[in-house]
Amino acid sequence: MGLSRSGDVVGIADDALTFALEASRESHPDEYMGLLRGEPASEFDIGHDGLLVTDVLIIPGTESNPVSATVKTSMVPNDFSSVGSIHSHPNGVLKPSQADLATFGKGQVHIIVGHPYGRDDWVALDREGKRRSLPVYDVDLDDPEDFFDFTQEDIDAELGIDGDEL
């Protein structure tokens, strides 16, 4: 196992980064903003303890324009365990602004994605806005489409209902 504590963010899943890059590109020229969610890295056999960023959560009601994005904190799910944030800089500057730094208090890692939103157009930062390492891992994540892959028969079986009873 790698050298990290069980709660440390040790990397980001390639699919999560790809999603954020695409969302940033689609939001351009406005800023994009989301929250990062992690899962135990041990579930992905990457040789590390800690957390792997696996999801980018889009918060309903987020307001965005070319110079800022604001998340409505009242819309953040109560059960959501954020490990940080991600947002874009349409001007391509990969340095945090003073406003960015003011929002970095929660979470371990904060990502800024810059125009033109390519694979090398992002940085990971700590709470103080200093660059930090965040390796990208090509891991198999659960397909969100699979969450809805069930039939009425599956529901009946889960509830213990015999189809002939109806």
Summarize the topology.
Layout lengths: L8 E5 H14 L5 E8 L10 E7 L5 E3 L2 E3 L11 E8 L8 H6 L5 E6 L7 E4 L10 E2 L14 H8 L7
Parallel strand pairs: 1-3, 1-9, 6-7
Antiparallel strand pairs: 2-3, 2-6, 4-5, 7-8
CATH class label: Alpha Beta
Given as residue ranges, the uncertain stretches (5+ residues, pLDDT < 50) are 1-5
Element order: H for helix, E for strand: EHEEEEEHEEEH
Distance between the termini: 53 Å
Order of strands across the widest beta sheet?
8-7-6-2-3-1-9
What is the number of independent domains?
A: 1
Concise synopsis of the structure shown:
About 15% of the residues lie in helices and about 30% in strands. It has about 170 residues and is an alpha/beta fold.
Describe this structure in words.
- With 166 residues, the chain is of the alpha/beta class.
- The chain has a single domain (9-138), classed as Cytidine Deaminase, domain 2.
- It is 17% helix and 28% strand.
- It has three helices and nine strands; from the N terminus they run βαβββββαβββα.
- The chain has helices at residues 14-27, 98-103, 152-159, and strands spanning 9-13, 33-40, 51-57, 63-65, 68-70, 82-89, 109-114, 122-125, 136-137.
- The strands form two sheets. A seven-stranded mixed β-sheet has the order 8-7-6-2-3-1-9. Strands 4-5 form a two-stranded antiparallel ribbon.
- A hairpin with a 2-residue loop joins strand 4 (63-65) and strand 5 (68-70).
- It starts with 8 loop residues before the first strand and ends in a 7-residue tail after the last helix.
- Mean pLDDT is 83; it is low at 1-5.
